[in-house]
Amino acid sequence: MMKTSFGLLSLLLMPTLVFAGDAPSLQPALPMDLTNHIVGYLSLAITFLAYVAAMTEDVIELRKSKPMVLGAALVWFAICIYYAMQGNAKAAVTGFESNLLAYVELLLFILVSMTYLNAMEERGIFDGMRIWLLNRQYSYQQLFWILGTLAFFLSAVVSGLAVGLLMGTIAMAVGKNNHRFVGLACVHIVSATNAGGSFSPLGGISTLFVWQHHILHFADFLTLFIPCLVNFLVPAAIMHFFVPKEVPLMSKQTVNLKRGSKRIIALFALTLVITVLSNVYLELPPAAGMMAGLALLQMFSFYLLKTAKDRETDGVIDEPRPAAWLDDRNYDIFQKIGNLEWDTLLFFYGAMMIIGALGFVGYLDAIAHYLFGEINTTIANILIGLSSAFIDNGTLMFAVLNMHPDMPIGQWLLLTLTLGVGGSLLAIGSAPGVGLLGQIKGIYTFGYHMRWMPVILLGYFASIAVHFWVNARFF
Predict the structure, then answer these.
(1) Residue 279 half-sphere exposure, CB side, CA atoms within 13 Å?
(2) Greatest extent of the chain over all pairs of C-alpha atoms, in Å
(3) What is the pLDDT of residues 13-25, one digit of tens each?
(4) pLDDT (tens digit, 9 = 90+) per residue, 368-388?
(5) Sign of torsion, CA 128 134 140 143?
(6) H runs (alpha helix) in 332-445
(7) Does the pLDDT of residue 187 top 90, yes or no?
(8) Is residue 71 assigned to a domain?
(9) Residue 38 placed within a domain
(10) From the CB of residue 307, how many other CB atoms can be counted at a distance below 10 Å?
(11) Which of 110, 129, 265, 470 is the most buried (most CB within 10 A)?
(12) Domain containing residue 269
């Protein structure tokens, strides 16, 4: 039975029909074009099924990372088996390793960023922000703009998913008695977060990819600030007139930050500075600077743990805030790493490896020939941006990078802009939207977000027009 199965697998992976005297060369030209081969068709089928399973996560109750990781394994095994049968397994392994390296750099960058956010949340920083906003007695309209502005600027340096969930939590807390405000605030937060993450390589995955591949320098991204600001302001200005004017009730709680909270914020800021400077002046990958920042956080966590135990040993634990010191006795930074959004991180592994496999097979070259050869490059970049309403922008950017299109800086900036803000058109088009769908169920829904798609689309095209105006020198 095993011999029969292996024989069937061999037939599937062999060229269409190979007769005597027509055996393939032991050293085929690389890369091999398998777009019209059974391996290529199998790769497309697996990719389609994996994405369908991931997009219907809520229906089939299967976490989105599982079908994507499995799909990536199946596609690359099929490719490697075929190449091994042709006597050139090393070529497929090299292709796999190059895609794996790109993912590892992304993983380490996001890992450090989310670890810092978890540490700040544990120290009570974000809860303190919520209480402070409530005690200021802002109206819902004022809170609408405050949350959006915070999301816009925070997402320039922090993961969009983390910012979206944080701002969503605050919106739910301050507007728990007003579902209309919460729904509008969530749409606003998604739009603001995606816009803010598009003018900085530190905040968005698609921008990070472009930065990692040395296509744009750090300063180049800042030229997108005005187009991104327009993208944020246009829909927000229209939605403002639909926000309730009431003032929420004041919170009875007081802000009580834990020991070391402000120093963790300072360490995170220092980490970002190290990351940017080491990349600009030393040409180190961004992950190197972020890992240096993780080391600083680990050393500071050791300090918190050590000083808390020393005070307990010295018998001076009875201070005005003894609970803070008692909490620090069991402080463990590795718990913050363990609490990361691993489902999302593994989803990106599957997506990047599958897209890389399709590029290795030859499909991305064929798509690139059409998009960037047969139609206008500007139209192609706008269409790719619109498609990010359905497909994750990081996955799309990785796919484009694997196409190796020859574009001027202005077009790369346009692609970065459209992919970053295009995900705001639908709730499932970006990580903040998907996160808020799961966090604020019944109030913020796919259908509710879709009601505001026309005004978000208006902001989308307005930001493109402003980009051509303010960045005309790059074209």
Answers:
(1) 25
(2) 88
(3) 333 333 333 333 3
(4) 777 777 788 899 899 988 988
(5) negative
(6) 333-338, 342-361, 363-369, 377-387, 393-403, 409-422, 431-439
(7) yes
(8) no
(9) no
(10) 15
(11) 110
(12) 102-474
